[in-house]
Design goal:
alpha/beta, 33% helix, TIM Barrel, two-stranded antiparallel ribbon
Length: 318
């Protein structure tokens, strides 16, 4: 669910990095807070139509997942992404009544971010190419992990309620690739164990800024199972660090075997909400919505495969 590069030039100030006061919450309390927000549905938007604080504030969704940056680094005068200010984030949050999660990609390189070297040099955390042509970040590399922690803190400094972690499934891609990249995990179980560590590091960095920060991971449903039976304790710790999981395009006809069983057993049964995101229109959208609800998920349906505008929240009929 990757956002495309933003080209729309606007001028906004970057919020300073600073810790915010909050009351610590247990993992169960955080997940319950997320679940309560999802009762009014959720929406996803990355730039595009009405992508301003005032425009997003008009959205009726109980939870929003958005880009914190409104301008990509290549299009900004100083070469740094321009983020929502704290006041603007407060507006989007409806003065604290609606949680807002901001986007962070764990495993794919995005050259429009300001972590990309401006001088064109190749960073040490540049990983292998996937079969689809995407460039993986070497998520096992210490510098990339530090970069993610720093970026999480910077994103949280906008005043957001938490972070949406995309492309966690990159662990499976990396573990399946034949590559001589230095330090690359030798197989999928090793990559899964590293990814669980990375997610916990990022979550801790977010909560160092806001101690009740919400963390939702996209996909990577099987990360605990892929890590192996000897990593049960590590998977428990991982689930304690996150507050929900999204499954993207998981209700299509050619479902991954055991996907929904894993979601039920490994997440819903542990009190972690499951968000489903699917691409459909018309009657198919209605059918997908009902299918998601029947499985205990909170659905969101995107009609055209674009996140440049918000679809209506999918909420149960009164």
């Amino acid at each position: 669910m990757r956002p495309a590069r933003l080209l729309m030039p606007m001028i906004f100030a970057v919020a300073p990095l600073a810790a915010s006061a909050c009351a610590p919450q247990s993992p169960g309390a955080r997940a319950a807070r997320l679940g309560a927000a999802l009762q009014s549905g959720y929406g996803v938007q990355y730039w595009g139509q009405a992508y301003t604080a005032q425009g997003l504030a008009r959205a009726p969704h109980g939870l929003l997942i958005i880009e914190a940056a409104k301008v990509g680094a290549p299009d900004a005068a100083d070469g740094r992404e321009l983020m929502f200010s704290r006041d603007e984030m407060r507006t989007i949050q409806l003065a604290g009544r609606r949680p807002v999660l901001v986007y962070l990609n764990l495993t794919l390189v995005e050259p429009w971010r300001d972590y990309w070297p401006a001088d064109g040099t190749l960073p040490p955390w540049l990983g292998p190419l996937t079969q689809g042509g995407d460039r993986l970040a070497a998520f096992w590399h210490p510098e990339w992990r530090r970069l993610l922690r720093d970026r999480a803190a910077r994103l949280m400094a906008t005043g957001a309620d938490g972070i949406f972690l995309d492309d966690a499934l990159g662990y499976f891609v990396a573990g399946s690739l034949t590559s001589d990249a230095a330090g690359k995990p030798r197989d999928v179980p090793a990559a899964a164990r590293i990814m669980m560590d990375v997610v916990q590091e990022v979550a801790a960095a977010a909560r160092a800024v806001r101690c009740d920060a919400l963390v939702v991971v996209n996909n990577a449903v099987f990360v605990g199972r892929d890590a192996g039976i000897q990593s049960r304790a590590a998977f428990d710790s991982y689930r304690q660090s996150i507050d929900g999981i999204m499954i993207e395009d998981g209700l299509k006809a050619d479902e991954v075997p055991n996907l929904h069983a894993a979601l039920q057993q490994d997440y819903l049964a542990q009190g972690l909400p499951v968000l489903s995101l699917d691409f459909a229109t018309g009657a198919k959208a209605d059918a997908v919505t009902q299918q998601a609800r029947a499985k205990g998920y909170t659905p969101y349906v995107v009609p055209e495969g674009s996140f440049a505008s918000l679809s209506p929240p999918a909420v149960p009929d009164p």
